[in-house]
Design a protein that fits this description.
The complex is a heterodimer of chains A (598) and B (379). Chain A is α+β, with helices and mostly antiparallel strands. Helices cover 26% and strands 35% of the residues of chain A. In chain A, helix 8 crosses helix 9. The chains are: A alpha+beta (598), B alpha/beta (379).
Chain lengths: 598, 379
C-alpha cells in the first residue's frame, strides 16, 4: 500500500485536464502514442466535442520514482457538470489528493474554485499546477498570486507545466508520490469498497469501478451491495490500464474493477458499499445517495415507423446509464413514445444526442418538466411529471412543487444581478456570506422548475463564467399551479404543454409563443400559435406564410439539378415532426422554456 | 412500378453558339462561330448514334445558344438529317429559337417552308435600358419587327420570351413591356423572373453588392400581377412561367419535360431522359466534337438511374408547376404512392388556404400556389 497513490485532476473547463492526463499516461509508458490515440478514438465523441467528461474514467499508471521505488498512480477522471455532481463527489471520495490545474493565461476561474471546495470537503491534498506556461499570454506571476489570494493555498506548493509540450511532467509525477499520502486501510479488515462508477460491457455485463478502503477481494468471493442489498459472485477483478487488466485480487488502497455477472448498471448504485457476504464490514462507507431523476420529458420518433427502433435504442442505452429511467408513453399529437427521467437538462441533452448519434435515430423530446404533487379533494396524492396527466383542476385540493437549496459562489461584484435573477426565479430565504474578501457565497431556496431550465445558462453568463452553482433538493412546497397549453393552428399539442406557477403563466405563455415563432420555420400557410389556460387564450403569435419561392425555369430538360435541390430541402424537413399540417423542428420543444436573454 | 411509355418522345437540339454572352444566361454556349461546321458534323454523328434507341419524335426543339446564327441551309440540312434518321410525323411540333434582328421575312419564310411551325423569339424586354442591362444585342424596334415578320410569314404559333424583375425596375415599367408584347398578339408568352445565377456576369455583380436582390414580397407581387394581367387578357397561365392563347398553342415539347415523357437532347450540355434514366452531355464543345469525330464516342457527361422515390418527387414538383396539376389516380398508378392517403391532411390545409384546388381527382396549384410551387412539392 506504500506504493499506491490515488488522485484526480480537477480544473475549470479548457484548462487542459485531458491533455495533462494524456501526457501522464504517455510519460509513464502505459503505451505508445499511437496505440493510445487508437484507444482514445473509442471514447465518446460527445465528450471530446463538448470538452466535458460525462463518464468517469480510471487508469493505473506504473511509475518508477526518483526514490527508486515503483508506484501505482491511480488517476480517476471525473465528470464536470452540476448534473453529475454526485458522481464527482464519489470519485473524489476515492482519492487522497488532487492536481488542481490552472491555465497560466486565464488564471483562477469559477470551476477552479468550485472544484477546490469539493476537494477540500473530502480532505484531499491539493497540488496546484499551473498549465500552459508555454503560451505567449501566460502570466505565471499573477496566477501564483491568485493561488494565494483567491484559493487560499500556499503559493510555494505550486508546480508549473505545459501539458501540450510535455514540460514539468516529471515534477508532477514526483509530487504525486511525495505529497499525496498513501491510502490508509487494512487488507485484513472486512471488505469495504466504494463504487464510484459502473459501465456496461456488452460481453461481460456491468463493470463496477471501485476503490477498496479495507479488506481484500478476489474472484470467487460472494459480495454484497449494502444499500441495494443484493449479492453477486465475483467473476473477475483487476486494474485499469488502457484496457482492463485482470488481477488475482484487489487490496485495501487500490482502485480497480469488478465483474460479477451484474446484468445492468441500474442494479449498481453509485456510492454504494461493497462488502463480503461471509464477513461483512460494520457499517457502509459514508455519503451514499440514491440518484433520482429530477427532469422528465417524453421521447418520440420523428417518423412513427421508427417506434420499434427507438424502443430498442432506449433499452440498450439504459444498460449504460443508471441515472436514466424510462417507461412507455403516448401523446395525442406525437404518437407512441417513452417518458424519461434525467438528472438535469445537460443529461437530457446528452441522452438525446447519444440516441440520435449512436443509434442513428431522429427523435423529438417533449417540453421537460419536474415532478409535481397534487392532493385531490378525495385525499388521493398524485405525482405528476407529465403535463398530460395534470388532474382536472376542479378536483385539486392542494398543489406542491419541488424546492431546492441553490448555493452559488462568485466574485461579489456579480451579487446584485445574481440576486435579482434568483428573485425573478421565485427564490426565497437567501443567505449570504463572504468566503474570502471579494468572494461571496449566496444560497437561495428556489422552485426546481425555475432553476432547471435556463437558470444555469443565465447565471453563467451573468457571472461571466466566474460563478459556480450547485443545488440540493430540499422539499415540496405548496404552490399555485396551472396547466399552460399550446395550440398550433387551433390544435392542442400536448407535448408542448407545461405546468407553471399561476403568477408566471401569462409571461410563460407569451414567451412560449414568441419562441415558437422563432423556432418554427415559415411554411406554406400562416401558422397561429396560441397559449391557453383552461379554455382561455392568454397569448398568441403568428408565423407568416411563404409567399414566393419558386424558380422561374426548369430549363432545357435539366430536371436533375432542381430535384437535387429539393431532395436536400426534403431531408431537412424530415428532421421535423409533422403535427397536424405543421412541421415543428426538434429545437422548438426545448426553446419554449428558454428566455429571450440567452 | 408500371411505367407506360405511351407518349412519343421529344427531340432537343442544343446550338451552342452566341455572338456574345448575355449577362444573365448560364446556358452553355461559345462565341467562336467558326466552329459551327465542326459542330454540325459532330451533331450528325450523334444523331446516328441514337437511331436504334429512339425511333420517332413528335416534337423537335432547336434551342441554344442562338440557333438563328446558323444559316438557313444549315438548318435545313439538320432537319433533313433528323427526318432521315427518325420518324417525324407531319403534325409534329417543330420549334426554333430566334434572336430578334437575326432573321428577316425571307429567312422566316424559308424556315416555315422547311416545316418549322413554331417560333420562339428571345425578346426579353421592350425597354432599351433593360436590353442594355441584360446584355442583349438587339433593340426593341428590331424585336417588334421580327414578330411582325413572323406573323407575315404566317407562323400560327409565335412565342415571345420576356424577363421581369430587373433590379430597380418598377412593376409599371415591366407592365409597359408586357403591354407592348400583347399588342403584337403572340400565341405564347414566356415570362421569366430574372434569376441571378452564380457564375453569370450579373450574378457576380449582385454578389458584389452592385445591386440588391428582389425581396420575396416584390417577387410575389410581380408574379401575381403578371398572371392576373395576362389571364384577364385571355392568356392561360398553364405553367409557372408560361402563358398561351389556347391550350393547342401550349408548348408540346416542354410538356414532355414536365410529365416524364422521354426526350433526347443532342449537342453539348443537352439533357436526356428515358425510362428511369437521365443522362447529359458534357459542357464542352471542343470535347463534344473530338469525342464524336475522332473517338466516335458518345459525348456523355454523366447519368443517373432514378429511384422510385426520386421519380415520385420529380413528378410532384414538375406536376405542381403546371395548371393541369396532378391526376391522383394516374399518379398512384404510375408512382405507387397514394398522395391523398399519405398527405391528405396537408392537402386539405393547402386547399383551405387557397394554394391548391382539389377537384375531379386532380390537385392543381392556384396562382398563389404556383408562386410557392417548390414548397408545395415538399408537402
Amino acid at each position: 500500500m506504500d506504493e499506491i497513490r490515488n488522485f484526480s485532476i480537477i480544473a475549470h473547463i479548457d484548462h487542459g485536464k485531458s491533455t495533462l492526463a494524456d501526457r501522464l499516461i504517455l510519460r509513464t509508458g502505459v503505451c505508445d502514442a499511437r496505440t493510445y490515440k487508437d484507444q482514445m478514438l473509442d471514447t465518446m465523441d460527445i465528450e471530446r466535442e463538448r470538452g466535458i467528461t460525462i463518464k468517469s474514467q480510471a487508469i493505473s499508471l506504473p511509475y518508477q520514482a526518483r526514490d527508486g521505488k515503483s508506484y501505482s498512480l491511480n488517476l480517476i477522471d471525473t465528470p464536470g457538470h452540476v448534473d453529475f455532481s454526485y458522481e464527482v463527489s464519489r470519485s473524489l471520495a476515492s482519492c487522497e489528493g488532487v492536481l488542481l490545474l490552472i491555465d497560466a493565461a486565464q488564471g483562477v476561474q469559477a470551476q477552479t474554485l468550485a472544484n477546490l471546495y469539493l476537494a477540500l470537503e473530502h480532505d484531499l491534498v491539493i497540488i496546484p499546477v499551473i498549465n500552459k506556461i508555454d503560451l505567449p499570454s501566460a502570466d505565471v506571476e499573477r496566477v501564483i498570486e491568485e493561488i494565494e489570494t483567491e484559493l487560499g493555498l500556499d503559493p510555494g506548493t505550486h508546480l508549473e507545466c505545459s501539458a501540450k509540450e510535455g514540460t514539468g511532467i516529471d515534477e508532477i509525477l514526483e509530487a504525486i508520490v511525495e505529497r499525496i499520502p498513501q491510502p490508509k486501510g487494512d487488507p485484513k479488515e472486512p471488505l469495504a469498497a466504494l463504487i464510484f462508477d459502473a459501465q456496461y460491457d456488452s460481453f461481460r455485463g456491468t463493470v463496477i469501478f471501485c476503490r477498496v478502503f479495507d479488506g481484500t477481494l478476489s474472484a470467487g468471493d460472494t459480495i454484497r451491495f449494502m444499500f441495494n442489498d443484493s449479492q453477486y459472485r465475483v467473476e473477475e477483478v483487476g486494474h485499469f490500464r488502457l484496457t482492463r487488466e485482470r488481477r488475482e485480487q484487489l487490496c485495501a488502497g487500490e482502485v480497480g474493477y469488478i465483474i460479477a455477472g451484474v446484468k445492468t448498471v441500474s442494479s449498481v448504485g453509485i456510492g454504494d458499499t461493497i462488502t463480503l457476504l461471509e464477513r461483512p464490514c460494520g457499517k457502509p462507507l459514508p455519503g451514499f445517495k440514491e440518484v433520482k431523476p429530477v427532469v422528465f420529458a417524453s421521447i418520440y420518433p420523428i417518423a412513427s415507423d421508427d417506434y420499434e427502433a427507438v424502443a430498442e435504442a432506449v433499452e440498450k442505452y439504459k444498460l449504460n446509464d443508471a441515472a436514466f429511467v424510462y417507461e412507455k408513453d403516448s401523446s395525442a399529437a406525437l404518437g407512441q413514445g417513452f417518458r424519461c427521467g434525467f438528472l438535469g437538462l445537460l443529461h437530457l441533452d446528452i441522452v438525446q444526442e447519444r440516441l440520435e448519434r449512436e443509434y442513428d435515430l431522429s427523435i423529438i423530446l417533449s417540453v421537460p418538466s419536474v415532478r409535481y404533487r397534487f392532493t385531490l379533494k378525495d385525499g388521493t396524492v398524485l405525482s405528476v411529471d407529465n403535463p398530460v396527466h395534470y388532474p382536472n383542476p376542479m378536483t385539486i385540493a392542494a398543489s406542491e412543487e419541488p424546492y431546492i437549496r441553490a448555493s452559488m459562489m462568485m466574485p461579489d461584484k456579480y451579487l446584485g444581478s445574481v440576486m435579482s435573477l434568483c428573485i425573478e426565479k421565485r427564490g426565497v430565504n437567501s443567505n449570504l456570506h463572504y468566503t474570502s474578501p471579494g468572494r461571496a457565497e449566496l444560497t437561495f431556496e428556489m422552485p426546481l422548475a425555475e432553476v432547471i431550465f435556463d437558470f444555469y445558462d443565465r447565471f453563467k453568463s451573468m457571472t461571466q463564467g466566474y460563478g459556480s452553482f450547485d443545488y440540493d433538493l430540499i422539499d415540496y412546497r405548496a404552490s399555485n399551479l396551472v396547466l399552460l397549453d399550446i395550440l398550433v393552428n387551433g390544435e392542442k399539442v400536448d407535448a408542448l404543454s407545461q405546468i407553471v406557477h399561476r403568477d408566471r403563466a401569462r409571461a410563460r405563455g407569451v414567451l412560449a409563443c414568441d419562441r415558437l415563432k422563432d423556432e418554427i420555420p415559415r411554411q406554406m400557410y400562416k401558422i397561429a400559435i396560441q397559449g391557453a389556460i383552461g379554455g382561455e387564450i392568454i397569448s398568441r403569435s403568428t408565423i407568416s406564410a411563404f409567399r414566393k419561392d419558386v424558380t422561374a425555369k426548369c430549363y432545357g430538360g435539366d430536371i436533375t439539378r432542381k430535384r437535387k435541390l429539393l431532395e436536400k430541402q426534403k431531408k431537412g424537413k424530415k428532421r421535423m415532426k409533422m403535427i397536424g399540417s405543421v412541421s415543428i423542428p426538434q429545437s422548438a420543444f426545448l426553446a419554449v422554456l428558454k428566455s429571450d436573454t440567452d | 412500378m408500371n411505367r407506360q411509355e405511351s407518349s412519343v418522345p421529344g427531340l432537343y437540339i442544343h446550338i451552342p453558339f452566341c455572338k456574345r454572352r448575355c449577362g444573365y444566361c448560364d446556358f452553355y454556349s461559345v462565341t467562336d462561330t467558326r466552329l459551327i461546321t465542326g459542330f454540325l458534323d459532330a451533331l450528325f454523328k450523334e444523331i446516328d448514334k441514337y437511331r436504334e434507341e429512339f425511333r420517332e419524335f413528335d416534337t423537335v426543339y432547336i434551342g441554344g445558344g442562338t440557333p438563328s446564327l446558323l444559316s438557313l441551309d444549315q438548318i435545313e440540312a439538320l432537319l433533313d438529317k433528323i427526318r432521315h434518321a427518325f420518324t417525324v410525323p407531319s403534325d409534329a411540333e417543330i420549334t426554333i429559337e430566334v434572336n430578334p434582328a437575326d432573321w428577316g421575312i425571307n429567312d422566316l419564310n424559308k424556315a416555315r417552308d422547311m416545316g418549322i411551325n413554331r417560333i420562339s423569339i428571345g425578346v426579353q424586354s421592350f425597354n432599351e435600358e433593360e436590353l442594355v442591362f441584360l446584355g442583349r444585342r438587339h433593340n426593341s424596334g428590331q424585336a417588334m419587327r421580327t414578330i411582325q415578320d413572323a406573323h407575315d410569314a404566317s407562323f400560327g404559333n409565335i412565342g415571345i420570351d420576356l424577363i421581369y424583375g430587373l433590379p430597380g425596375r418598377t412593376f409599371q415599367q415591366w407592365q409597359d413591356s408586357l403591354m407592348k408584347a400583347m399588342a403584337l398578339e403572340p400565341a405564347h408568352l414566356s415570362c421569366y423572373e430574372l434569376e441571378l445565377k452564380p457564375r453569370t456576369p450579373l450574378g457576380l455583380k449582385c454578389e458584389k453588392g452592385e445591386f440588391p436582390l428582389r425581396t420575396e414580397d416584390a417577387g410575389r407581387d410581380f408574379f401575381m400581377r403578371t398572371s392576373e394581367i395576362l389571364e384577364e387578357s385571355g392568356y392561360i397561365h398553364y405553367e409557372i412561367s408560361n402563358f398561351t392563347r389556347g391550350m393547342d398553342k401550349a408548348s408540346r415539347h416542354n410538356q414532355k419535360y414536365w410529365d416524364h415523357t422521354p426526350y433526347l437532347g443532342l449537342g453539348p450540355s443537352a439533357h436526356s431522359f428515358k425510362g428511369q434514366r437521365r443522362w447529359w452531355n458534357h459542357e464542352s464543345l471542343h470535347d463534344y466534337i473530338s469525342d464524336l469525330l475522332e473517338g466516335s464516342l458518345l459525348p456523355a457527361g454523366s447519368s443517373e438511374e432514378l429511384t422510385g422515390e426520386q421519380l415520385r418527387l420529380e413528378a410532384l414538383f414538375l406536376g405542381l408547376r403546371t395548371r393541369k396539376g396532378i391526376d391522383l389516380v394516374q399518379y398512384q398508378r404510375r408512382y405507387g404512392y397514394d398522395l391523398m392517403k399519405e398527405k391528405g391532411q396537408v392537402l386539405k390545409e393547402l386547399s383551405r388556404t387557397g394554394l391548391v384546388e382539389i377537384e375531379c381527382g386532380c390537385i392543381r396549384p392556384t396562382r398563389a400556389g404556383m408562386a410557392i410551387a417548390d414548397s408545395l412539392a415538399l408537402l
